[in-house]
Amino acid sequence: MIKSADTKPDGDEMEVEETFPESAKSRLIAVCGKGGVGKTAFTAMMSKVLSASDAAGKVLLIDADPAKGLTIALDVEVKKTMGEVREEIIAKSKRAKKEEKVQLVDMLDYMALETLIEQDEYALMAMGRTESKGCFCPVNSLLRGSIESLSEQFDTILIDGEAGLEQINRQIVRHLDTLIIISDATSRGLETARLVKAMVEEEKVIKCDRLGLVINRVQDNVEMVKKAAESVGVEVLGYIPQDENVAYHDLVGKALTELPENSPGFVAVQQIVDTVL
Question: What is the pLDDT of residues 141-200, one digit of tens each?
């Protein structure tokens, strides 16, 4: 929750003092992996499973990919992103006087709330792109504090991360209950999984209570794939078979939450979610 704000001598930026909840009640799950491995499709299917689960409670989805892939996979229209809120704050703070900047900070929670899309099954927030160059760390901290405050209203928060390792490296979130690494059955995908493991366990870039690996689009050589997955040294949460229903939904732009209940990929994701919850 935001306590106060002030300005730098040059008037170009906001300084903030923040306090955050000592213990978050929400279950925080994030999904990461190399680009092109089906991370967003997995997250979309996982959101369907979580939304139908009593154990998950009230669900918040955060599309942290600037390309807004999750919103596309869910066929949800986004009217405002947190990136646009950030740009609005930066633009207004550069023109505002000191007392107006204080008022702007007081409005931030409401501005963040405007980005929240309420569906029957879940709520969704898209981070979106940011255009302003340079370091705006105080503004980023303001937004993170606002998201944390808003997140307290939900029982389970699922984050679809940007492709690659950038968001882990920038410590977008500071503590996760579960980090799920998605890989396909390729050496490149598994090498990314190893890099994530090293960043979490050796470099300690983020606190993570549980680290798991999911292998997506498994077709032939199942035993070879399992052996390769186990060599990463991360708990394997499950294997998702190649599913033509998923490919079709992606091709025609149909929401992945509309997949048949017996679709092989969706059945596999249900089993994986059971192990996570």
Answer: 666 776 777 778 899 999 998 877 666 666 556 788 999 999 999 999 999 999 999 999
Q: Looking only at Cα atoms, what is the longest distance across the chain?
A: 65
Query: In angstroms, rounded to a whole number, what is the distance separating the alpha carbons of residues 155 and 27?
Result: 6
How many domains does the chain fold into?
Answer: 1
Query: Do the beta carbons of residue 30 and residue 176 sit within 8 Å?
Result: yes
Q: What is the Cα–Cα distance from 101 to 159, expressed in whole angstroms?
A: 30
Within 8 A by CB and 6+ apart from 25, the residues are 152, 155
Give pTM, 2 decimals.
Answer: 0.84
In this structure, the dihedral spanned by the alpha carbons of residues 230, 233, 237 and 238, taken in order and rounded to 10 degrees, is: -20
Tokens of 84: 């646009």
DSSP 24-53: --SEEEEEEESTTSSHHHHHHHHHHHHHT-
Which mean pLDDT values do the consecutive 10-residue runs of the chain (277 residues) have?
36 36 69 93 97 95 87 92 82 73 73 88 86 57 70 90 71 81 96 94 90 95 94 97 95 94 97 95
Which domain does 65 fall in, by range?
2-276
Q: What is the CATH number of the domain that holds 39?
A: 3.40.50.300
CB hemisphere CA count around 25 (13 angstroms): 10
User: Which stretches of the chain are assigned E, i.e. beta strand?
Assistant: 2-7, 14-18, 27-33, 59-63, 117-118, 123-126, 156-160, 175-184, 207-218, 235-241
Q: How far is CA 173 from CA 56, 60, 129, 216, 255, in A?
A: 20, 15, 17, 25, 27
Half-sphere exposure of 114 (CA within 13 A, CB side): 15
Cα separations in angstroms, 172 against 64, 102, 162, 219:
9, 25, 11, 34
The reported pLDDT for the residue numbered 112 is 80
